[in-house]
Fold this sequence. Notes:
3-stranded parallel β-sheet, single chain, Rossmann fold, 217 residues
Amino acid sequence: MRAHGHQLRGLEDRSFNQSSWEGLQEAEREYGVDAEALVSTSETDLAPNVRQAVDSGCGLIVTVGWELAESTLAEAEANPDVAFAIVDETVEAENVKSVVFDTAQASFLAGYLAAGVSRTGVVATFGGGNQPPVTLFMDGFVDGVGRYNEVHGAAVRVLGWDKAAQDGSFTGDFEDINKGKVLAEGFIDQGADVILPVAGQVGEGAAAAAVEHGGRR
């Protein structure tokens, strides 16, 4: 059996792209699956690359991210005998398995912990783009901080995301590390001592800013 993984942005994003590809590689080792990867560098690559995966004769095509939902659905409907899976998005089709995680639960715990360890009473979060898979993390983080405040009578503030307004701080990018660093430095200047990036590799910039400011979290 041949399986094809298709992602927008890079494979080494320390998130769903990377974990999906590592899963296919593990299947290759354990079950003799022939796994291949296609990486789109722009949105114009999406539909052609999914079509290429179909034309390659793969028995399973795994796409990753909401950007690929439309192309996945179109190819699944046109090729009912081909199996598809999409990670981090829901596509309604008989031959598509949607692999969705309730990421807000994990970020809720992160928010609760962040509020508990903050010494300044200010924490922050930012995203790579204002998209549901990103903002779901940010919602959970804000809820976790809110729960900590409720339980402990605290007043920890969250910068970077207004859950009610569904608006906040975004770099507009998932790869430019410098953008993450600049945004994180702005939060640190406002007193934040714990920052949760939801931006793939851009989060490395926030880590760099934390190191330069004496180990902020």
